Amino acid sequence: MERANKIYHSSRNYIFKYIIAFFWIGFNFVVFCKAFNNYHHDVEYYYLSRILGNGLCVSRGTVPVLNVTMALITLPTCKTFNLLLHKLFGRWSMRLLVHYLEKTKVLHLLLGYSLLIVAIVHSVAHFVNIVNFVDNYDERYREINWANGPDDNIMRLLFATPTGFSGCIMLVTLVAMAYLARRSVRDRFYNSFITSHHLFLVFYGMMFYHPLSNIIKHQTNTDKHKIMCDLVDNVTLHSNEDLLVLCEEPPQFAAGVKRAWIWPLLPTEDRNDITLTIKVRGDWTEELYDRVAQREQCKRNLGGVDPYRRIEFLLDGPYPSVMSNMLDCKRILFIGAGVGITPFVTIMRLLLSTNVDKPARVHLVWIARSLETFLWFADEIARLQEKFWSQNKPDRFWVKLYWTQNYDEHLLAECFGDMPSIKSRMHRGRPNWNDVFIDLVTLYPKKSVSVFSCGPKELTKEIRLKCKAYSKHGCKLSYFHEGFG
């Protein structure tokens, strides 16, 4: 019976410790996620997050966890607090009060371990922030940058500033108290253990001093000045429905952008630039086109004043794309409808600028309603064909273009008379998919071909069915779909 009681009490203590630990960790996790999400999505911290990245969210997300832990850690060992509990609840439930008093050491240790772990995570995140302040220094946002310039010394920010110095003192103090509180040290040097725990006065003093420098700043005029992409560097007007915009810098992620504003982004040869191809469909795209047209007209008029020197965009992304697998495929067929050609342009420009081995065979089918659409990237297609012809690889790039509405031979000759490689590959109407896939099966028996498509749902559904049907004829067709919505 006595042994059973011992097992019962030991198991009860064991379960109690782990239940408390489970709830405490869960509570801290919720608090951290809420704070992290706030700094990750709040537009007030957009420009600061461009400099610091996720280091800002981690460092600020751990702050409320630290605050709660530091507020509670001294309570289990505070005699005044325990005496107050005894007076308030002693008559109501003495058994519960005794159970709490027996577990004060367990609670204190739990809070101490969590404080040490979160403090280390917080400190590492701040060190990463210091590095990012220097490495990502931007003269345009020097008001929110802690560093004095791109050549600022990281050690100066870490040890010679009030915020950095106080943070180091707090971390060293906490580590010293934790080390001297270990059982092996505590049993041999108990006086040192007691003395070290009085360093909590220094710790709390530095805690109140640490945030006084106001390193973390937020934007206060979000209603008047919205987050943006960057300056527009160059613009090309293809027609009254299309424009090509070259931004000076790649866009960064901005929370809360509407889905209707997501458009294809095309990387150029320069990594610091992006090319944005926009189809004018109404609302903001029409207004953007009008502004760009006025901007270009003002450039032509030497005496004119350009009222739209700064054009700002709200861009979301980039997102993972199935098209990134193209470079790993040996044989590909890309089918694009209208603006659906844009994901393939990245591959075309890469093939133009480099001599990569894959893809070894490229088949392109581009379908469009108007001839003006083919003007977008006809030059790239023609130059890529000429490149492979000069390398004695005429069969590496196979092209078929389909003009589906208002086909006009005279207009075709007028637009592409000096580009025979484009004119000879232009066809009237829609493609016969059976002929396209029969050619693939004939060319590549018992081989694999990756089929990529970007276009309306009806087209992608039909291509998917054709891939499934013709895979039974000895050629393995793997289908991948890219969408913009």
Secondary structure topology:
Blueprint: H1 2-41, H2 46-52, H3 54-72, H4 79-89, H5 94-102, H6 104-135, H7 154-159, H8 162-180, H9 183-188, H10 190-197, H11 200-209, E1 232-237, E2 242-247, E3 265-267, E4 274-279, H12 284-300, E5 331-337, H13 342-353, E6 361-368, H14 371-374, H15 378-390, E7 397-403, H16 409-416, H17 420-423, E8 426-428, H18 433-443, E9 448-454, H19 457-470, E10 476-481
Parallel strand pairs: 5-6, 5-9, 6-7, 7-8, 9-10
Antiparallel strand pairs: 1-2, 2-4, 3-4
Helix pairs in contact: 1-3, 1-6, 3-6, 6-8, 8-11, 13-15, 18-19
GO molecular function: superoxide-generating NAD(P)H oxidase activity
Protein name: FAD-binding FR-type domain-containing protein
Keywords: Membrane, Oxidoreductase, Transmembrane, Transmembrane helix
In sequence order, what are the helices and strands, one letter per element?
HHHHHHHHHHHEEEEHEHEHHEHHEHEHE
Question: Helix/strand/pairing class, anyone?
Answer: alpha/beta
Please report the distance between the alpha carbons of the first and last residues.
Answer: 70 Å
Largest sheet: 6 strands, parallel
β-strand amount: 5-15%
**Rg, nearest Å:** 33 Å
State the strand order across the main sheet. 8-7-6-5-9-10
How would the global form be characterised? Answer: elongated
Helix content: 40-55%
Note poorly predicted spans. 228-233, 237-271
- How many structural domains? 3
Mean pLDDT: 77
Total beta-strand segments: 10
Number of helices: 19
GO cellular component, one term: NADPH oxidase complex
Domain Ferric oxidoreductase: 85-206
Subcellular location: Membrane
Main location: membrane
